[in-house]
């Protein structure tokens, strides 16, 4: 859920209803749903207060559903881990007052790349994972080294956003780097979520511009990147039997 630039901070009622629609659709279809506080400055007092209110409401309403994963700060920027951690503790306490069990994913410094820094001083609590983001055409071994260090320190890592293009959301798909990343994530048993199923005019988008929701499954509406990621996903053994691909 977008928070800044015309998002939740400016239109809380509208955005809350939008996110409820998504959550309830996920629950109805037996899917996990990442409830994402999508911004870079959640540690600012006004933003923190809004986040606490939002996640208090979400956890009160949906905390008894195992489908819910709380992503409480998508991409922190311009702040140290101490500042970010203090924000996380406030929001985690608000969630845990209503939901003691569902996973909470905590953003890490520098647009959720410094999981190694968070691993040196993790948050006390249970079922807390830490956000890591990468874009395959921009980020390589030095970023994987950060993840490896975090794992060596027993930090749970969740890749809640990655792209097969550059961090700008544009540029050509880097198939070679993407495959190296996928192999690394699979070898380390990490979950990862592609950015993104949208129709924005950028190469990170899985859908072509002007596509609508009913066309998500229409292969003719997929971008090159969308088809590339879909092919990878269908190559995995998910433990399920499906009749379409």
Automatic annotation (TrEMBL):
<dbReference type="InterPro" id="IPR001547">
    <property type="entry name" value="Glyco_hydro_5"/>
</dbReference>
<protein>
    <submittedName>
        <fullName>Glycoside hydrolase family 5 domain-containing protein</fullName>
    </submittedName>
</protein>
<keyword id="KW-0326">Glycosidase</keyword>
<dbReference type="GO" id="GO:0000272">
    <property type="term" value="P:polysaccharide catabolic process"/>
</dbReference>
<dbReference type="GO" id="GO:0004553">
    <property type="term" value="F:hydrolase activity, hydrolyzing O-glycosyl compounds"/>
</dbReference>
<dbReference type="Pfam" id="PF00150">
    <property type="entry name" value="Cellulase"/>
</dbReference>
<keyword id="KW-0378">Hydrolase</keyword>
<dbReference type="InterPro" id="IPR017853">
    <property type="entry name" value="GH"/>
</dbReference>
<comment type="similarity">
    <text>Belongs to the glycosyl hydrolase 5 (cellulase A) family.</text>
</comment>
<dbReference type="InterPro" id="IPR018087">
    <property type="entry name" value="Glyco_hydro_5_CS"/>
</dbReference>
<feature type="domain" description="Glycoside hydrolase family 5">
    <location>
        <begin position="12"/>
        <end position="201"/>
    </location>
</feature>
């Amino acid at each position: 859920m977008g928070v800044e630039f015309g998002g939740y901070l400016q239109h809380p009622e509208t955005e809350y209803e939008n996110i409820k629609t998504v959550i309830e659709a996920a629950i109805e279809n037996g899917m996990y749903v990442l409830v994402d506080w999508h911004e870079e400055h959640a540690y600012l007092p006004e933003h923190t207060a809004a986040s606490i209110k939002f996640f208090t409401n979400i956890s009160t309403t949906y905390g008894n559903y195992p489908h819910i994963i709380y992503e409480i700060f998508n991409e922190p920027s311009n702040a140290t881990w101490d500042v970010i951690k203090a924000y996380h503790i406030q929001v985690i306490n608000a969630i845990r007052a209503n939901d003691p069990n569902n996973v909470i994913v905590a953003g890490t410094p520098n647009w959720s790349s410094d999981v190694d820094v968070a691993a040196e001083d993790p948050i006390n609590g249970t079922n807390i994972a830490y956000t890591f983001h990468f874009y395959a055409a921009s980020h390589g071994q030095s970023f994987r080294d950060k993840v490896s260090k975090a794992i060596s320190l027993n930090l749970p890592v969740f890749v809640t956003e990655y792209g097969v293009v550059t961090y700008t959301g544009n540029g050509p798909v880097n198939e070679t780097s993407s495959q190296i990343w996928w192999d690394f994530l699979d070898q380390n048993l990490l979950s990862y979520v592609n950015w993104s199923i949208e129709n924005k005019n950028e190469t990170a988008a899985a859908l072509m511009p002007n596509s609508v929701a009913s066309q998500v499954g229409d292969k003719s509406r997929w971008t090159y990147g969308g088809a590339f990621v879909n092919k990878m996903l269908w190559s995995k053994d998910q433990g399920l039997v499906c009749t379409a691909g």
